[in-house]
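Subject: design request, 357 residues
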């Protein structure tokens, strides 16, 4: 058994015998429930269970391919933190970690091949690389490879990603459950993952028997910036009769939410008293313009660690079926969304005329 298990220490802390602790950690049935709970609680506190589940990685060198912007926290904090998650997951292993920038589409195939054929490269992780040619090359080379937040459409490479569609559906459903029927979505649809979120949002509208009309209920942004979002919402407020203003905005990122709140406040509207704002992101800005932000957290830090675990499984069971692990989001309720109670005056903004009911 691994020396890191510290069976003697667990026995001393729990008052149980070394043989009892050993049987529990080995999964034997001839132990009492009380002893089992004591050992597992102590092992969990010491990080022993995590080490047992992770095990040895069985490789000494790993290459991470990602878009250039992922290497700069200011350019893409999401992917930057994903890479930090990979590094942290590998901290317990003696693995040399190397990085290589690669474009999402139109990737440099020769660069990819040179890195993959390098004798020092034993496995690879691809972050956000959508180029199908790169996926084909990775599968054909045969070295263990895991995708993060992208998918191999030929289903030969395993991957881990947020469940974008379900995340979009749950975010929209939360607003409906809070009594909002007049909702406008502000999204940046520059990648298929955002299209999946929009598909989930549509699913929520359909599930609540509400007609979704892109002309009324969707504003597409070219970026995730606060400045562009502020301008788009300011233009919307200027061009749309007050009776058709929404009671809530669902936006595709925290910086977009910051722009939304800024535009609403400059228009003399209070968040959430007059109009609610909800974000699908939830990591960068816990509060915007003194308004605590209600958001649906998209899994981010977990992607790296789960990719490493998935890679471990591929190394141990290379012939196992290939699939994609989709991670759920987490709802964080703060103060930027107000609950609307039926048949009560809830807001200074009037919503009549936005829908035919």
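Subject: RE: design request

Done. Sequence follows.
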């Amino acid at each position: 058994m691994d020396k890191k298990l510290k069976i003697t220490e667990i026995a001393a802390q729990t008052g149980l015998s070394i043989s009892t602790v050993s049987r529990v950690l080995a999964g034997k049935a001839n132990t009492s429930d009380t002893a089992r709970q004591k050992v597992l609680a102590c092992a969990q506190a010491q990080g022993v269970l995590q080490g047992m589940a992770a095990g040895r990685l069985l490789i000494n060198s790993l290459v991470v391919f990602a878009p250039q912007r992922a290497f700069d926290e200011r350019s893409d904090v999401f992917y930057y933190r994903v890479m930090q998650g990979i590094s942290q997951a590998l901290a317990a292993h003696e693995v040399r970690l190397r990085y290589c920038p690669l474009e999402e589409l139109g990737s440099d195939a020769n660069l990819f091949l040179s890195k993959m054929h390098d004798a020092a490269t034993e496995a690879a992780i691809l972050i956000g690389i959508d180029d199908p040619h790169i996926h084909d090359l990775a599968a054909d080379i045969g070295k263990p490879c895991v995708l993060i937040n992208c998918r191999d459409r030929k289903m030969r490479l395993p991957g881990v990603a947020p469940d974008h569609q379900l995340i979009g559906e749950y975010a929209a459903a939360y607003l409906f459950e809070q009594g909002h029927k007049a909702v406008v979505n502000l999204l940046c649809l520059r990648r298929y993952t955002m299209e999946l979120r929009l598909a989930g949002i549509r699913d929520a509208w359909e599930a609540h028997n509400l007609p979704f009309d892109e002309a009324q209920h969707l504003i597409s942004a070219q970026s995730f910036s606060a400045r562009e979002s502020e301008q788009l919402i300011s233009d919307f407020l200027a061009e749309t009769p007050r009776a058709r203003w929404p009671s809530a905005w669902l936006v595709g990122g925290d910086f977009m939410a910051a722009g939304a709140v800024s535009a609403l406040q400059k228009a003399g509207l209070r968040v959430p008293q007059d109009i609610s704002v909800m974000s699908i992101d939830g990591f960068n800005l816990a509060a915007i313009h003194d308004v605590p932000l209600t958001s649906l957290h998209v899994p981010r830090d977990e992607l790296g660690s789960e990719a490493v675990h998935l890679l471990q499984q591929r190394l141990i069971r290379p012939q196992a079926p290939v699939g994609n692990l989709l991670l759920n989001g987490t709802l964080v309720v703060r103060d930027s969304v107000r609950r609307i109670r039926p048949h009560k005056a809830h807001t200074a903004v009037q919503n009549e005329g936005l829908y035919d009911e």
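The chain has 13 helices and 14 strands.
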